[in-house]
Amino acid sequence: MDHKTYAVIGTGAIGGYYGARLHHGGYDVHFLLNRDYQFVSEHGLKVESHYGDYSIPADTIKAYNTSHTMPKADVVIVALKTTQNHQLEELIRPLLKPDTLVLLLQNGIGAEQTLTNQLALDYTAGGLCFICSNKVGPGHIHHLDYGRLTLGVYGESGMPALTSVADDFQCCGVEVDVESSILDARWKKLLWNVPYNGLSAVLDTDTAQIMACSETVALVKAIMQEVCIAAEAMGSSLDPSLIDTMLNNTAKMKPYLTSMLLDRRNSREMELQYMYKNVLEMAAEQGVDMPKTEALYHQLCFINRLTAD
Prior knowledge:
Keywords: NADP, Oxidoreductase, Pantothenate biosynthesis. This is 2-dehydropantoate 2-reductase. The chain is built from twelve helices and ten strands. The chain has helices spanning 15-24, 37-43, 88-92, 111-118, 159-171, 182-203, 207-211, 214-233, 241-252, 259-265, 273-285, 291-308; strands at residues 5-9, 28-32, 46-49, 52-53, 63-64, 75-78, 101-105, 124-137, 140-154, 176-179. Strands 1, 2, 3, 4, 5, 6, 7, 8, 9 and 10 form a ten-stranded mixed β-sheet that branches.
């Protein structure tokens, strides 16, 4: 096994879980923390999972409060919310080697392009996390279910590096799908995220309540159709049958609180740039109108401003 050095930027529900899986797989993993740094340094990282315990003791974990003291990495995993992406260039640059792969485990679209340009990289990668995982306390992660990753590359020359990282995750027991293009994968995830994240936040409700009302179901479907048209215009064709599949699957789900709803309820900034603003701007550049999505975005902006104030 090729044991790479991994750096995890953002040791929360996502970065902490996948970083711990890599650590238990025998990889050299270094964790960047902010508010939890002192606690994790003294008590370790606690990761409780329905797959088992992936905790890392204090005398074993490699924890840092600045990337300037971390070793250069073969792979940098970014698990921060996109609201923190303005910090990425400063955080990542000290970790780069000539062939470092930066992997963004984030929602939305457009971050890979931006970061590739900022850091003058030949390629980056992105990942979509299909997981139920929550941070329930300082250095304490509760993994409830799932955990599959869909990975894709931005820049064709990065595919060998991404395939190698996918192999590492699979060796650690993480189910992984590799797409030839991260953009195609991101549009597919947006097909669900755009309607359900936004409507749940605006209506302050869970997915079950959205699906219990025929009018909101019709609105979800209309927004999904707008996303399909925008994706097609950007060269990422989505199978129209995905809409009914996602509607049916969501109707069968247990009541789910989306990440955007949780951000609203906890007075945190919502991820609007990469999940809505970028989508609308890309569509407009191709002459595609998304009136229902745009109306939803404007309402979310209003709520976000109240949260910021």
